[in-house]
Design a protein that fits this description.
By secondary structure, this protein is of the alpha+beta class. The protein has 19 helices and 13 strands. The strands form four sheets. Strands 5-6-9-8-7 form a five-stranded mixed β-sheet, sandwiched between helices. Strands 2-3-1-4 form a four-stranded mixed β-sheet, sandwiched between helices. Helix 8 packs across helix 12 and helix 12 crosses helix 13. The longest helix has 23 residues. The protein binds guanosine-5'-triphosphate and magnesium ion. The site of magnesium ion has 5 residues, from loops.
């Protein structure tokens, strides 16, 4: 074919492809960032954003015939990927132009009793006027929520080792490829609402949606990025004429952020299809707009001017990519904490998932040899292109994974999980602060019960909200879990497969059951007459047994 179309055409064609790639996904940057098989978060985001812009979200009747559905959409262009979840389908076209032609063929809904807000978006509904062809072949509908805890406990009990349980837990909980695509698509749909006012903006997901530690069904943290606005770096002439934009001024950057969020929050509330239950939380340390995106089911937090959080996301992502044990341990500890009520989905005096993740990272830095490097080390490896100072905070760390040399630690997941509980069961929270920048404990400033230094805003404590009761619960549960896992380390033998197979809970499964100590405490509280001795005895026995196990291990 090259012979027949000629060299000139080939060159032109390649130039077009090259321009397309550079313009649309910044491929040259992506290639640099993909060294050694690692993709930087920047590269992942660029790729996903580009996919999202070519995608639409379509509500379709559960009886819609998949083949006819796809044939209809193929009239507008090649479909690169599609999937169904609930009553929705995500359809990604091969080219962005297909979206424009799809819009041309899309109707405004019939008015009926209501009047429509004339705002067009890529959230569409497929209607079928043809009642004959409603029979459907089964469609694979993907789950967007993680499996219920009881099911997970049963599943883990069937595994052969604690290491396998931990891997299986991560697989069951982690975001799927589709959930990830859907998250970027929601950001892209919301960007279309903001773009008439700020055409150069982007809305990027951050936090657990992209840091590698996201669980199916986790919230969608979004960041309205206006940094790309052109003209910021335009050089002023030393003399002569030049033009500048007339813009409204406000007293501080915080007020600008609040005004932007307030304005676009109103637009989302009034025009945004699918955006419901919107609240503006503008007085928070980090102002935000919270709402539910109904078609995806995501609870969304939209922030602006939140670049430090973006940097923490990038850092967590990097740590998660360095060694697979990092993600496995974080998923397991997060799941355990949720099952035990250490973390909750609403804000309060409890430990947040972010704090818990930093605690796991710190623990991994304290292994001998360390499994992950300190943030100071990552900063020392940074090149000039990595330099980042945000509001006087040094957020510099290396982005080129190939510069990071890891030490050869061969500990198993089982060892690490047991050691994690022991580490925090006996950590001196009263006097010491957790510091992943230095990778070692620091003397704690007076005040908060739990002190975890914010990795970038180093004068702040990420766990400032945690009170003594919640910290006490965390420590008590670490002690109990440390003991429990020591007692149930091996999978029960699975003889006698005839008849009813009963599942024995063991290993990680046991850690996800309600705490026995707390159960006893609850009972005691509910019956005031009950004496406290039995519980105390129970705890004493448990601690004795823990000590005995430790001594045995030390001797062997
Ligand atoms: P889940 O939403 O609970 O799954 O985890 P998450 O990591 O997304 O936590 P969250 O939604 O609470 O916060 C989103 C992101 O904001 C985190 O991943 C961090 O990057 C950042 N963040 C949250 N809390 C703090 C904090 O106290 N200090 C700093 N610097 N960043 C924070
Ligand atoms: Mg989150």
């Amino acid at each position: 074919r090259l012979h027949t179309i000629g060299r000139g055409s080939v060159v032109k064609c390649l130039q077009k492809v090259d321009t397309f790639l550079h313009r649309n996904i910044g491929t040259n940057v992506v290639a640099v960032q993909e060294k050694n098989g690692f993709k930087s978060l920047y590269a992942v985001q660029a790729e996903r954003q580009e996919q999202a812009e070519r995608s639409v979200l379509i509500s379709c009747h559960s009886m819609t015939n998949e083949k006819r559905f796809l044939e209809y959409l193929a009239n507008y262009g090649d479909i690169q990927k599609y999937f169904f979840y609930g009553i929705y389908a995500v359809v990604e076209f091969a080219n962005k132009e297909s979206i424009a032609s799809l819009f041309e063929g899309t109707a405004i809904p019939g008015i009926g009793m209501e009047t429509m807000m004339p705002f067009k978006s890529r959230l569409l509904s497929m209607r079928n006027l043809d009642s004959v062809d409603l029979r459907n072949q089964p469609k694979k509908r993907l789950a967007q929520q993680s499996i219920p805890i009881n099911e997970l406990i049963q599943r883990l009990s069937k595994e052969e080792s604690i290491d396998q349980q931990i891997t299986s837990l991560t697989e069951a909980h982690q975001l799927t490829e589709e959930s990830c695509r859907l998250r970027f698509l929601v950001c892209s749909l919301l960007k279309d609402i903001v773009a008439p006012f700020f055409p150069e903006c982007t809305i990027k997901p951050f936090g657990s949606s992209v840091n590698g530690f996201g669980k199916l069904g986790c919230d969608l943290d979004m960041f309205l990025d206006l940094d790309g606005i052109s003209g910021k770096n335009a050089t002023m002439p030393k003399s002569g004429l030049f033009l500048e934009y007339q813009m409204k001024a406000a007293k501080s950057e915080r007020i600008v952020t609040q005004n932007i969020l307030s304005g676009i929050g109103t637009c989302m509330d009034l025009f945004g299809p699918g955006c419901v239950g919107l609240h503006k939380i503008l007085d928070a340390r980090c102002p935000l707009v919270r709402f539910t995106h109904q078609p995806s089911g995501f609870q969304c937090d939209l922030t602006a001017n939140n670049r430090v959080a973006m940097k923490s996301t990038e850092l967590l992502y990097l740590y998660g990519e360095l060694d697979p044990r990092v993600r496995h341990l974080v998923f397991t500890v997060r799941c355990w904490a949720q099952a035990q009520g250490i973390t909750k989905s609403i804000p309060g005096a409890w430990i947040s998932n972010f704090s818990l993740t930093v605690m796991v990272l710190f623990f991994l830095q304290r292994r001998n040899p360390p499994i992950i490097p300190t943030l100071e080390h990552l900063r020392d490896l940074a090149g000039p292109e990595d330099k980042s100072v945000i509001e006087d905070n040094d957020c510099t760390f290396v982005s080129d994974f190939s510069k990071i040399q890891l030490e050869s630690n061969t500990e198993t997941l089982e060892q690490l999980l047991c050691e994690f509980f022991e580490f925090y069961a006996s950590f001196s929270f009263q006097t010491l602060s957790i510091n992943i920048r230095k990778g070692r404990e620091q003397n704690k400033p007076v005040g908060d019960p739990l002190h975890i230094q914010n990795p970038f805003e180093t004068t702040l404590n990420v766990s400032k909200n945690v009170n003594t009761t919640q910290l006490g619960r965390f420590v008590a549960l670490c002690q109990e879990s440390s003991w429990l896992i020591q007692q149930n380390k091996t999978a029960p033998s699975r003889g006698g497969t005839e008849g009813k197979a009963t599942i024995t809970l063991w290993g990680v499964s046991n850690l996800l059951l309600p705490s026995q100590i707390e159960e006893v405490k609850r009972k005691q509280n509910s019956s005031k007459k009950q004496k406290f001795e039995p519980t105390n005895q129970w705890i004493k026995d448990m601690l004795k047994s823990m000590k005995a196990t430790n001594n045995q291990q030390n001797q062997s």
